[in-house]
Amino acid sequence: MKKVMSAPGFAALEILAKGRESAEALHSMLHQQQLPEVSTMPHELWALVEQILHCCDRALAALSGGTGGGACKKRNPEHGSPVDLPCTTRSKRLRVRGGERGIQVQKKWTMEDGFAWRKYGQKNIHGSKQPRLYFHCSYKDDSGCMGRRQVQQSEADSSVYVITYFGEHTCGQNSSRWSSCDDDGLVVNRETPDLCNSPEDEELQEGTVNVAAELLEQSTPVLELMSMSSPWLEHLGRCQEWEVGYSKSLFNIDEFIDIDSLLQ
DNA sequence: GCAATTTGACCAAT
DNA sequence: ATTGGTCAAATTGC
């Protein structure tokens, strides 16, 4: 069954993106050492921001679920194998074109996002100088996690990696596998153009009765991530003696903290 | 020896 | 026919 991103799901994505922008803003402030408090607890603050950034990335990836499996196609045997190859993986020949939705993130200097990925393909894309790299979750075989991502360097700025997430992370990777990147400069989160404009919009309208159930199902991993990140976010919110210039970020973080109520 | 990556082939969608 | 997503054998690295 194909999952449909509910309207509250879109709202959650927007807030996640906004929260991540705020975290990124704080990240920049810390990087520029504009905060007087930095001198007193730099490591703690840096850890907070890093956690926010990683949590947002993971939440966005988790919420981007769009595939629900599909017909498993057989590969034409060319090395003497029998025709009736066993068909065990649901993800074979899944296509993004024509409907599968993803969350697109742009990151500067690094394509690291805290998840463990294994590269399974690379293609030169027509009209693009940069090849597109294909990754699936490292735990795909172990736990059947269907998380995938595509990474392509920006045409305009080769230091920018455009990462598009597909599928749903169900492997429950723990934070010990999160990598810490010194220069983890995410530029902007945005939904892919077809995210809000898919042929499934009608399905969305008809399915209002199931919205709550769908959202709950889709957002379970997000709730876990939020429960993990909330203490750090709340800690940030308490540091409101920071200068006025940071009030907007704090406001957005407050809203971000409240995502629990939106998802529940 | 094992795991990860590379890369050409396969095949579905357009 | 073309394009792009995935597979899987070959290669590479530890």
Verbal overview:
The protein has helices at about 5-30, 40-65, 140-145, 200-205, 210-240, 245-255, 260-264, and strands at about 105-110, 115-125, 130-135, 150-155, 160-165, 185-190. The protein is an alpha+beta fold and about 260 residues long. It has a six-stranded antiparallel sheet with strand order 2-3-4-5-1-6. Strand 4 (about 150-155) and strand 5 form a beta hairpin. Mean pLDDT is about 55; it is low at about 1-10, about 35-40, about 65-100, about 175-215 and about 240-245. The structure holds a DNA duplex (14 and 14 nucleotides).
Low-confidence spans: 1-8, 36-41, 65-98, 174-217, 239-246
The secondary-structure element order is: HHEEEHEEEHHHH
What can be said about the biggest beta sheet? 6 strands, antiparallel
Widest sheet: strand ordering: 2-3-4-5-1-6
Distance between the termini: 23 Å
Number of helices: 7
Radius of gyration over all CA atoms, rounded = 20 Å
Strand count: 6
How much helix, percentage-wise, in residues?
25-40%
The chain-level structural class is: alpha+beta
Shape field? globular
> Overall mean pLDDT score?
57
Strand content: 15-25%
